[in-house]
Amino acid sequence: MTRPMLLNAFAMNCVAHQSSGLWRHPRDRSRDYRRLDYWLSLARTLEAGCFDGLFLADVTGVYDVYGNSPDAALRSAMQIPANDPFSLVSAMATVTDHLGFGITGAIPYEPPYAFARRISTLDHLTDGRLAWNVVTGYLDSAARGAGRRRQVEHDTRYDIADDYMTLVYKLWEGSWQDDAVIFDRESGVFADPARVHRVHHEGPYFQLDAIHLCEPSPQRTPVIFQAGASPRGQTFAGRHAECVFIGASTPAAARSMVTDLKTAAAEHGRRGEDVKIFALLSVVADETDAAAQRKLEDYRRFVLPEGSLALMSGWTGIDLGAYGLDERAENVESQAIQSAMRGLGSRTVREWGEALGIGGAASVITGSPASVADALEAWQDESGVDGFNLAYTVMPECFEDFVRLVVPELKRRGRLRSGYEPGSLRQKLFGAGDRLSATHPGAGYRSD
User: Architecture of 6-296+363-432 per CATH?
Assistant: First the structure.
């Protein structure tokens, strides 16, 4: 039986997300990231292409590991400047009916009580189309911006995240009962106080004694995304994640990660189907294979390797500027993204600078609609992933090309749905209800 393919567009509220320097291309419009019409147009395009969601990355801090300075990132616009992703969602929701919105929120820099309200508000305004990509941070510059000297140790960040998740589950799932809102105009009672519960939380890192400020939103808890690939990150994903975002250079490498993640979920009493896994890819498509290859070579002329090295240095915590271009920086311990070096393989500094220029860490698929569809099918079938996060190159051309060329081919093959089912994002992804599944730990905090 042909498995349906899930698709997210992978973007960020900035100029250069992962493809360094492509903002210089004459057809690129990413400089318009500051304008709402840019995002509204993108949302319409994605919904026309039956994408499941727009996955908005974010980072708190600047990439200043390379050369011990932010200069390379600033020159190349590598994720700096970067605007707030949350502000985009309600506007895009007004021009779409089904597209989901995955927003990255960093636990160390989002106070949980206020964050829970922001999420509930957006879940209301999108009518249940919200997902949260849980990240624990990896840049010391972000920690310094929050008044700390440096990031806490890698695994401790996940311990903090576990406590944070428990707290927000209590607010979303347990503070208001489903029938708390009466909205009785005649009696003058809006909510029954007996059905609204104060949350008491005394955890190792967070304390709370409060009522959630929002009435229950369609999903209550947003769809939980997570992207940690380290052993501790996979343990966290096995407990909390409903969708996991992975980076792998080959389908075989992705298959190994899929197996590990399903095992981690089973260890927490969850089923394999409770977790959807998305692999990172980037697609350059055109009418023919030859035309697509010419387009890729055209894109490559605009790559800024310095920006790619600033990005890679931030991911790994290793100053690649301290190495010669033909040297390899390997087997170095850091407190940044521990899986970054392993996932991208063994390369020289020069090779990293060049290879990351198109789609960043994503494997790049190039070709005609049939060739791209063949490659996507092979990736899905060989790796066992449920779908893909597609990193952008030239904006919005890359997504417009995908929707115009590749989507019809995927639909013809029965890999992509021809339309949307009704319901929340969780219901669309899992074919069940709006709420967390009974096997998810957050469900244990329900008050009714």
Answer: Alpha-Beta Barrel (3.20)
